[in-house]
Every structure is written in C-alpha cells, then in structure tokens.
Amino acid sequence: MSYLEVAVSAVPTANKDRYIQEAGEAAAAFMAHGAIAVTENWGDTIPKGERTDFHKAVQRQENETIVVSTILWPSKDARDAGWPKVMEDPAMQGHGDLFDMSRMIFGSFETIVDKR
C-alpha cells in the first residue's frame, strides 16, 4: 500500500505567488526521488471550530492562509529511501523564510483504504 505525508501550514497570504513557485520546485524534487504525487492546497473554506480546527492547530494569524500539502509515496520504504535525497536536493534549499515552519503540523500515514 501507498504511504502519505501530510503537512498543514499557515503561510502569509502576501507570499502566495512565491509559495506556488517554491512549492513547485519542491514537488519536482519529491517526484525525482520517488514520490508518485504531490499536492499543495491553498485554503478556501476553512470553518473555525469551537474546540479545535486548522486555524488553532497552526496558530494562524489574520494575514495568513492555511495550506495543506500532501506527498504520496508508493510505500514507506520508498519514502524512507527518498526523503534523505530530497533533503539534499538543491531545490529544497533556501525556503526557510517563506513561512513560520515551527507552527507547521505534519505526519505520515499508512494507506489502509484506497478507492480511486
């Protein structure tokens, strides 16, 4: 089964064009090192919850938009082999000031149902 990585970030809304450009470069690096799909999803309709929600999870500020990023790998083994190569790829360097990565939440998931 496939293996999915998900990240949720709060990106300054003014950085949208730059984010799209840099995310495209990063996606190419992930694909070059074994990922089978990469998506970047700019927040649109994201309701605020009473107890928890995306806004609270990433401590979104008024001038920020929530972004959900996904990387689909063919397997956990492919992810484990590809990840170090991605981190060394020149396309992944110099993006640290695009948004506050300390507020990003992320995780990796084993696919248990896949109906396409």
Mean pLDDT: 94
Radius of gyration (Å)? 15 Å
- Spatial arrangement of strands, main beta sheet: 2-3-1-4
Distance between the ends = 13 Å
Largest sheet: 4 strands, antiparallel
Order of helices and strands: EHEHEHE
- How would you describe the shape? globular
This entry's quaternary arrangement is single chain
Number of strands: 4
Per DSSP, what share of the residues sits in E-state strands of 2 or more residues? Answer: 25-35%
Poorly predicted segments:
none
Total count of helical runs of at least 4 residues:
3
Helix content: 25-40%
Task: Write a short abstract of this structure.
With 116 residues, this protein is of the alpha+beta class. Helices cover 29% and strands 28% of the residues.
Description:
With 116 residues, the protein is α+β, with helices and mostly antiparallel strands. The protein is built from three helices and four strands, in the order βαβαβαβ. It has helices at residues 16-32, 54-57, 76-88; strands spanning 3-12, 37-42, 64-73, 105-110. The protein has a four-stranded antiparallel beta sheet. It is globular, with a radius of gyration of 15 Å.
Features:
globular, single chain, 116 residues, alpha+beta
Reconstruct the topology from this structure.
Layout lengths: L2 E10 L3 H17 L4 E6 L11 H4 L6 E10 L2 H13 L16 E6 L6
Antiparallel strand pairs: 1-3, 1-4, 2-3
